[in-house]
Description:
Residues 1-18 form the signal peptide. The structure is a single chain. The longest helix is centred in the C-terminal third of the chain and has 19 residues, at 418-436. The chain has 479 residues and is an alpha/beta fold. The strands form two sheets. Strands 1-2-4-3-5-6-7-8 form an eight-stranded mixed sheet, with helices on both faces. Strands 10-9-11-12-13 form a five-stranded parallel sheet, sandwiched between helices. 37% of the residues lie in helices and 16% in strands. Strand 3, helix 2 (70-75) and strand 4 form a beta-alpha-beta unit. The protein contains 18 helices and 13 strands. Helix 12 (296-304) packs across helix 18 and helix 15 (365-376) crosses helix 16 (418-436).
Amino acid sequence: MKKFFVIGMLFSAVMVQAQTARTFTLDLTEDGKAQMVCFLPETSCGKAIVGVPGGGYSVLSNTHEGTMASDWLNQQGIAYFVVNYRLPEGDRMKPMSDVMNGIRTVRDSAKVWGINPNDVGIMGFSAGGHLASVVSTHADFDARPNFSILFYPVISMDQRVSHKWSCINFLGEEGLKDPALVRDFSTMNAVRRHLTPPALIISASDDRLVPFVTNGLEYYKAMRLAGNDCAMYVYPTGDHGFGFGPWFKYHDQLLTDIGNWLKAHQAPKEDAVRVACIGNSITDGHGIDMATAYGYPALLQKKLGSDYWVKNFGVSARTMLNKGDYPYMNELAWKDALAFKPDIVVIKLGTNDSKGRNWLFGAEFRQDLEQMITTLRPDLLQPAKKKGKKAAATVPAKPQIFLCTPIKAEKTTWDINDSIIVNGVIPVQQEVAKKYGLNVIDLHTLFEGGEKLMMTDGIHPNGQGADKMAQIIADALKQ
């Protein structure tokens, strides 16, 4: 019986090993001090994960918090890449740049490695969980992961409530004296609504090294309060550092939980039509709980289907006017919207511009709107070419831009003025649209239904109103 058991175990080991088609190591720095160990699956599902080992920023725990995850991930068809990053040693940009370089490398090589570049996640452990959360909240769009898995992460850089040596090693003794730096790299403070990727946080209730309540739980709270997609699994026991080690009491349950979460987060198709929704609080989903799932852009995604990829770049209170109190084009969301390289852009700005203090600069609304349009479409700055009799067919320039007129302000809450919207904002939008050959979605007229579609403030759509907005815009995009 023992002989058959041993043969069975060997056969299982061979089968697991067979799931990994290629293993190789790449240098991430010219001197080879930072490397990435790559595990490509035999059959790829298109998903990839960049692993970030822990070790308190003093060593790298890259076995059970690194390479040990490769077999299981490759069995799921997931490509896996472990970044052996440089330790900070006084320069926090070393580990940050190494991990960001790893993500960029995976995306740049996606076609060769059978990966969907829009489905590249990050998985960090302990201090590596902190580093993964830093990249998730601080990296530019091209190096920001599509999802994050954080094992018992260090989140706070306040050594009084966190892992002391991770804080010291990452920020340095002098950095810890700078309250702004401590706050910025305590990553629960850096979570951005709609912009920080979905997160799965994993911990054990009896973790004595990195207090869960002041670290992992704080990140979850920040994500949930922002309305972002997040989940949290806390196991009864396990202390700190269990990683993918089979000795962890709940190891099998852990794999099931991670697998189910990953299956629930399917990436858009590589060739999906990219739709960027730019706007103020109405796009952002102000007042709608979990707006990332229930705001108008999320509902628009459902109505358009899987051939489209809709992203919400709305920011509350923002103006088109660059001299307004909160100009949209100063926001990270605007930078991200450009980096998204959309095929379609839906612009819904103008409501906050109608406030008296903002419309003082109303004479500049046209030039600021044109600035946004020509930044999205630099080709519109070029003089139109005369078409010859045998002019060759041209590919339509991208993105296709849809200008939405503001919905009717049912009340004067926050000094929003519907008269200025009707007589000031909308005429300029229509003239600019005509000048550049853009589409206009007249929400001010089409979004009818009055207060039953609005929150009590008379400005923001409720859930029913968000659904109506999404339907109007979906109909326009499909024409």
